[in-house]
Amino acid sequence: MRTGLISTLFGTAPTQRRGETVAKILAGGGDTPSVAASGDRLSLSGAPKNGRFAAAPELRAAMAGQPLRLGAKGDGVKAVQVALLDLGFALPAGADGAFGAQTTQALKNFQASQGLPKTGELDAATMRSLDEVAPAPGLKAWEDPNLSPKAFVAPEMVKGKPSRGVAAIDQHRFFLYDRQGKLEKIYPIATGKGENATDAGIKIVSGKLADPTSVAKQLWPESGGRAFGTRLVDLSWYDPNTGKSTRSGEELHGTFDRNSIGRDASHGCMRFFNEDIEEVYNRLKVGDVVVTKA
After folding, report:
1. How far apart are CA 31 and CA 175, in angstroms?
2. Considering only CA atoms, which of 227, 228, 112 is closest in space to residue 172?
3. Predicted confidence (pLDDT) per residue in 67-119, tens digit
4. Is CATH 3.30.70.260 the right assignment for the domain spanning 46-143?
């Protein structure tokens, strides 16, 4: 959230936003496996290679050009949901085997991460890409030593050092790295909506609040002190050429609105599940660099 928070805590925030337009590149990829029709049966030439998808015939069919979409149900949908969760995408209701609005949004976020058209459907190109980048069965992305580099965003090098975090705005994911640049974890996030879209650029942690309740009461009294969740990490713009920082009006903070995670929902800040922002709060220090990318 932007209005008044930085001036309350850390100085004067800029009152104007840049209205930056984010360019999104959409592209398909690969050839669709051949499908030979024989009566009511299909002969499929392609099949998932990742073991987590092998037992679901509907995913084999999706790879061959029979998409899964809103309203679908079953073990195949659940396997896709688990894979999306293991890649750090948001499904606040969890993996329930029902293809609803959250699964549609999570697939759009995944498609954005792979440069695919954001249809929200499990079409052939999306299934092939998910089969390629999903971690091995039973592992989270950051636990898989053989994870595809297409599954995550690498840290940005700033003044010869890797950034501690990267927020991929269009993917609605936040990547946390150790000080050597190794991926530690991926978190689903909400980002700015409409004219309050989260700004891309290089930022630095400039302050932290272990309990943002009182500030939330001041700025958003209707929230009853809950507007920023359980933790807040303030971000400032950072110029690596001069070493100077200026207030950005953006923060990392928690939320009690769990269903907002995974989409554009904030006033410019990056929202986390409360349990996630508590981890990030403990790992980031004042002076750490966080890069936000369109």
Report:
1. 31
2. 112
3. 999 999 999 999 999 999 999 999 999 999 999 999 999 999 999 999 999 99
4. no
CATH topology of domain 154-293: L,D-transpeptidase catalytic domain-like (2.40.440)
Please name every residue paired with 207 in a beta bridge, in sequence order, or none if there are none: 234
Name residue 193's amino acid: K
CA proximity to 128, closest of 206, 35, 28: 28
User: How far is the C-alpha of 233 from the C-alpha of 205, rounded, in Å?
Assistant: 7
Dig out the tokens for 63 from the structure.
Answer: 């790879």
Please list the alpha-helical segments (H only) found in the chain. Answer: 5-9, 57-63, 75-86, 101-113, 124-133, 213-219, 274-283
Q: Answer yes or no: are the C-beta atoms of 68 and 99 closer than 8 Å.
A: yes
Query: For the chain, which residues make up each domain, given as ranges?
Result: 46-143, 154-293
pLDDT tens across 115-160, in order? 999 999 999 999 999 999 999 999 999 999 999 999 999 999 999 9
Distance CA 124, CA 26 (A): 15
Q: Is 249 helix (H, G, I), strand (E, B) or coil?
A: strand
Of 81, 128, 133, 88, whose CA–CA distance to 102 is shortest?
81
Share of the chain above pLDDT 70, in %: 85
CA 253 vs. chain centroid, Å, equals: 14
Q: Are 281 and 210 in contact (CB under 8 A)?
A: yes
